[in-house]
Amino acid sequence: MLAFLLILTLHEIIVDAEEHAYQQFIECAFDSQGQVDHTWRYGYDGKDIMHVDLVKKAVVATSEPGKMLEEERKHMEYIKRKEEKLKMVCSAVKTVFLKSNNSLSRAAKPAVLVSAGGEQDQKYLKCVVHGFYPNVIRVRWTQKGRPVYFGVSSTGLLPHRDGTFQMTSYLSLINMSAHGVSCETEHLSLDGILRKTNEEKSQITQHVLWASAAFFLGFALPVFLTLLFIWKRRHTTRPPEDTSDRSEASLSLNLMNMSQET
């Protein structure tokens, strides 16, 4: 089981009164024997532009903006500094993240919820992962199966009183679509990768609405119509008129007429 830490640094750059985001992404991976992998990537305005290949001892540009940085950083001294800094960061990460919290005796599975938020021009996806133990976990965003590195930010690990942990990861949708985006979680308590999407939540909401509509049409509506029919019938039906007084008046009038004739 690998343990990962994602670190994002963001620098705001203002060019010709326009704001741009310059990002760095660091990933450290471990197993029970120690460190097994690490990466250092660069991004600009949410797009991958360059990464440091420590195996080949080279800086590799992945876009046009990254080629300028590649020329400036291709010397060995720069690569050596990055390698030493990665070792220092990953060593500190290992020390912190591999210290287990003994308040729980067994692994607790995380609960994952993906939702959307933000205004029209600042939309984002939020992935809340909570209730897991131990605190070694990997949470990442993918789009159609491919990892998304940039436009991502995280709260880091937050402890709960019961000994479990929580973290929230955000994905900016300024430069990308939410279609096909998933939040993937890997944890010791899970069998494989747990994938959640905001589309699943929308489908659940749609099913609830359909179920509510079916209940209304199948049960509530007939009951309402029946009650309405009874109410109308009670208010339109009048009691029969009492004709006894009219008969007595007619009889009295006839008697008066008869008395006048005699």
From TrEMBL:
Which portions of the chain have biased composition (kind: Polar residues)? 249-262
The portions of this protein that span the membrane are 208-231
Give the residue range of the signal peptide. Answer: 1-17
Q: Is ATP-binding set as a keyword in this record?
A: no
Keyword terms: Glycoprotein, Membrane, Signal, Transmembrane, Transmembrane helix
Compositional bias of type Basic and acidic residues: which residue ranges? 238-248
Q: SUPFAM superfamilies annotated for this entry?
A: Immunoglobulin, MHC antigen-recognition domain
Q: What is this protein called?
A: Ig-like domain-containing protein
